[in-house]
């Protein structure tokens, strides 16, 4: 599990492509290295990846075909930076919200509005059916960053970014057209899906009762 509080950024120093498979080597900040072992989980742009090799500060991660398809990690090139967070430990402060590191879709940056101390960024999810889970003032994971949803339309949503977030994460360098990883809040998803099932069940029961009444 993760908290959505980015602990630093890392630079991709090499990429090895194989058939439906890729290995990224990322240079981690020194603060994220103590106690790191192979098999540990580290979120890269919000995507939970397993450490497969350690060579000083250069850490290897393997990306499967599905990861490359669903996330923006497959678009990375050598020199690009990623947001990093090590897995939360029992007793850690949850400064953001609980996140699994399972990216559900990507979204395109479609509008950026900048003022003196705030930046409003609008996103359009690739899978628009997921908009039902993105609610005003709800939680969402954006490239591994725990953020609160601002305005929402039928196909887009926005977040507001303070200078600290822009400085500490990769979002400060993002521009129009860039793709970001999305993790929706699992509790919101569970509530919405449950309500939909209950409503569908009620509609089915009403239709059945109506048919019986017509046949009587």
Automatic annotation (TrEMBL):
One of its GO terms (cellular component) is cytosol. It comes from the Bacteria. Keywords: Repeat, Riboflavin biosynthesis, Transferase. It holds the Pfam family Lum_binding. Pathway: Cofactor biosynthesis; riboflavin biosynthesis; riboflavin from 2-hydroxy-3-oxobutyl phosphate and 5-amino-6-(D-ribitylamino)uracil: step 2/2. InterPro entries: ATP_synth_asu-like_sf, Lumazine-bd, Lumazine-bd_dom, Riboflavin_synthase-like_b-brl. It catalyses: 2 6,7-dimethyl-8-(1-D-ribityl)lumazine + H(+) = 5-amino-6-(D-ribitylamino)uracil + riboflavin. It is an enzyme of class 2 (transferase). Transmembrane segments: none annotated. Lumazine-binding repeats lie at residues 1-97, 98-195. Its EC number is 2.5.1.9. Residues 1-97, 98-195 form the Lumazine-binding domain. GO terms for biological process: riboflavin biosynthetic process. Signal peptide: none annotated. One of its GO terms (molecular function) is riboflavin synthase activity. Catalyzes the dismutation of two molecules of 6,7-dimethyl-8-ribityllumazine, resulting in the formation of riboflavin and 5-amino-6-(D-ribitylamino)uracil. This is Riboflavin synthase.
